[in-house]
């Protein structure tokens, strides 16, 4: 399978990455090189094979449902590019 | 006094215990070496004051006889490990000036055991790369040079000539250890990022079994493949490092609750009677004759030490790399969704929030990272999920089954080459076709796909005078066998220190 320019554009949008029009053909070529490389997986007979979910056979451990952390709002926003009174600031979402 | 930076980690440990020198002297020597080697670009952040404070505390503990297993030993930390109060960037512009308010579990365990931090080490951006050329801080210089090469320290102190890459993604870790800029370093390995740079620099590296080390506080790339491990000067040094790095952590649900053995005790243990598998599928068509000869040499050494050599088959080997280039980007696209310009790091303005996200991610991520996020997004998108992602995870089951069957048949470990070639020059690979770079991990990536431990140990030099490594693959949670076998190879091959400090 290979991707066309429209698909590259759509995928860039899904990935929330702005791609200038001029860069689309280069990206298309690179993505198609990778997709061409992975094509060989179609040779493998995978009928009846379970997809891997965990390399180590182990049950997910559960922990006690208790508060282990908190009251650190100032630390949480410390690295934010924009914050105000321990809130993250973002561009207006609702008109 | 002898040059303290030439010591191995365990020699330095013994010297501190014998009071031949102090932790402060040892740290001061390393700080000076780091400053002198800035042209190698191995460190992206030096923390000399932090190191000296830790060293003074270690000297006090050593005097009181309360030394931890790594007391007073100066280490470098890959910039993928969150270090409390010390800038952590994954060598990406998108993390900008991120200062973690927490410490990664693995690095925290090193400080618990008395280690000293010299600084943060360069790596490929988000650990995506095999040459350290994708770092936002620029490429790292391999301290090894081809025979007769024009690489040298120029009059301005910058490296001149076409230098070699140290491999990646843990290029800074490998280069720093090889150039004696720390006694050992932390690293991470998702497809070969510990073992390939170790092989390129004549150092030793181990990727432990998935679940052996906590991933908490390590910048995530592909969560089902990522594992932390050490790069060191010797097999023994790696054994000592891993003991401190490993262990159960309730904060990482994939971390395994098993006792951590004293790995150093496995170093020097007899390998007599062990069954070593040689997978025929690793004899690639067109395999470099020098790599082939090195592999045979490794077989002969292990045989001479009493191991039994058995040819085995791992039929799905060839599909590991293509399956990896679906699974790893898929997980990366999901993990890297968190870099949105809201909670930390870079923000670029936009007309609305969607444009703010798109502009931030366009400006913050480098070319290779964007490429992988796009591939990951594509293979997970509606209509393609089954054809790509689910199929790749099924192939992964088959890859693991190959190993399970070999181990069930009595194989103790598998011996393969670590890389298909020695270190290559900067800009030599992957500029037109990304797959050319990906092929570097052809021998290492199966190990991540199957969650197994893998050790890279230097075993010889090629015609250009550059180090080459062998890889040992073990049973799950049997790192000890790898340390025993690795020591046999190290004893036979000798060590490969960089002879001339030309930088």
Structure, described:
The complex is a heterodimer of chains A (95) and B (503). With 95 residues, chain A is mainly α. Helices cover 32% and strands 4% of the residues of chain A. Chain A has a domain at 5-42: Orthogonal Bundle (Histone, subunit A). Chain A has helices spanning 5-14, 24-38, 73-77, and strands at residues 83-84, 87-88. A two-stranded antiparallel sheet of chain A has the order 1-2. In chain A, strand 1 (83-84) and strand 2 form a beta hairpin. The longest helix of chain A has 15 residues, at 24-38. Chain A is flat, with a radius of gyration of 23 Å. The mean pLDDT of chain A is 92. Among the domains of chain B are: 4-271, Alpha-Beta Complex (Amidase signature (AS) enzymes), CATH 3.90.1300.10; 319-390, no CATH class. Chain B has 15 helices and 13 strands. In chain B, the strands form two sheets. An eleven-stranded mixed sheet of chain B has the order 1-3-2-6-8-7-12-13-11-9-10, sandwiched between helices. A two-stranded antiparallel sheet of chain B has the order 4-5. In chain B, helix 2 packs antiparallel against helix 3 (48-63) and helix 7 runs antiparallel to helix 15 (479-493). The longest helix of chain B has 23 residues, at 386-408. Classes of the chains: A mainly alpha (95), B alpha/beta (503). Chains A and B meet through helix 1, helix 2 and helix 3 of A and helix 9, helix 10, helix 11, helix 12 and helix 13 of B. Chain B: It catalyses: L-glutamyl-tRNA(Gln) + L-glutamine + ATP + H2O = L-glutaminyl-tRNA(Gln) + L-glutamate + ADP + phosphate + H(+). Chain B: Pfam families: Amidase. Chain B: One of its GO terms (molecular function) is transferase activity. Chain B: One of its GO terms (cellular component) is glutamyl-tRNA(Gln) amidotransferase complex.
